[in-house]
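Sanity check. The docking grid for flavin-adenine dinucleotide depends on where the pocket ends up, so I'm generating a full predicted complex first rather than guessing from homology. Inputs follow.
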Amino acid sequence: MTHRIVVLGGGYAGLTTAKRLGRLLPDAHITLVNERERFVHRILLHQAAAGRDLDAPRLADLLRGTNVELVVGRAAGIDVERRQVAVVGAERRNSPSRAAPRPPTKQGGVSVTTEGSADTASPGSSSRSRVPQGAETTGATSIGYDSGTPRGASSPRVPQGSEAVIGYDTLVYALGSVGDMTRVPGVAEHAYGVSGRDEAAALRDAVARNDSGTVTVVGAGLTGAELACELAGRHPRARVRLVSRGEAGGWLSPRGKRHARAAFRRLGIEVMSGVGVTAVKDGAVVVDGGSVADSDVTVWAGGFTAPPLAAEAGLDVDGLGRIPIDDTMRTLARPEIYAIGDSAAFTSRHGNELRMACAAAIPMAWHAADVIAARLSGRSVPPFHFRFVQQAIGLGPGDGLVQYVRPDDSMVNAVLTGRTAARYKDFVCWFVAKTLPHTGPYTPRRRHPMLPRPQVPVG
Ligand SMILES: Cc1cc2nc3c(=O)[nH]c(=O)nc-3n(C[C@H](O)[C@H](O)[C@H](O)COP(=O)(O)OP(=O)(O)OC[C@H]3O[C@@H](n4cnc5c(N)ncnc54)[C@H](O)[C@@H]3O)c2cc1C
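Predicted complex below; grid placement will be based on this.
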């Protein structure tokens, strides 16, 4: 039977791993599930929130020429026992160029071939097909494959009314992260986020409406600091305030801190360090001790968390909802499930937990693809060599900070600043965007013929 790999999440990690798997394993059936049809360049969202245009390429275009099937829809549940994913609003959006042959449908199962699917559309053409509803007794539809499990019995993890159920042999969980808007009262109702495209667009519009009002950015980590600088640089009439429970920019080295503080001053950002926000209200934030500060627009950049799907599926997760993984990117309890990017919790051999970063998500994605391909073709699993070398931070138009780090991600008192650092950061973002359509600069050219039956536990 053709090995079915389902990748959940078409962000930096999921897209990269799906494409690389497609190249390494042309005989596998690879499906990428993403809730939107367009790729979101999250590392540029603070710029989009400040009014800059953001390129949003179609995932189908980024997958052109690969054997990766794109399903646009929201993954709503994972049944880890039956190895199925429920997807709401599922639509196939491309025609994989080298679709693997479909396996025969098993007794009792329903295999749906949709109009314009990989089976019927001409190679390279773009297709969109609505997956028919109600093809199964559960009210769900199987995309392409029979999952091999008996129908009719209810599945506790797959919500009723889901439009599609996709079976997998290997699952790659790459759903990223979202702003943690639940821990402080009023944040979900009254604050803007910056972790998604819609959130950034809503924030951009709110700031444009309050161009000379007060904008409060809560959280002075990398995202909050970049956002405050970008907003202050592009909206000079606005009063931008940066509120931080710890010292603003406190994670940086002494030199890094000095430069960041100078940038905040230059941009007129009002920094409130050592202040916790205890509630957000309409038009105000409440801080420690109960004082209230007016705020026309409040942005929550006070931490990120992984989506709840893994926990809901009964997988072990850490306090941020991330799945702990080993150095092959595999979950500790389920050998057929891998996790990468912001949704994964990985402690490196240097002892540090990888922070949520695009800079980590992409190497994790390359590695997961290489490991899965190696396991399925009976080759030895490559080691994971990754360490951060720096943090590149934009400090508004024309200024930046490159903070160098040790292998364990602790700060070295060495930085690059100013226009050169800003150019470097722009180059990194440009480079990421340019290389996304490819499978990674170090992809081995050879393909991995899969074993008829895997000799090692697959996942
Ligand atoms: C404003 C901002 C600036 C940043 N700047 C930097 C930086 O300079 N450098 C850096 O290294 N990192 C930066 N980051 C962090 C970086 O963006 C993330 O670490 C990176 O996006 C993680 O990649 P990922 O693939 O794990 O997740 P994501 O890029 O978030 O991708 C997850 C994908 O899964 C999809 N998805 C989620 N839930 C579902 C579902 N239920 N069903 C289907 N699809 C779903 C999402 O739509 C998304 O496409 C920044 C983040 C922000 C918000």
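Relevant for the grid: The pocket of flavin-adenine dinucleotide is lined by residues 9-14, 33-36, 40, 42-43, 45-46, 74-75, 174-177, 194-195, 223, 307, 309, 341-343, 356-359, 361, 392 (CB under 6 Å).
Also worth noting: The chain has two domains: 4-177+306-385, 180-302.
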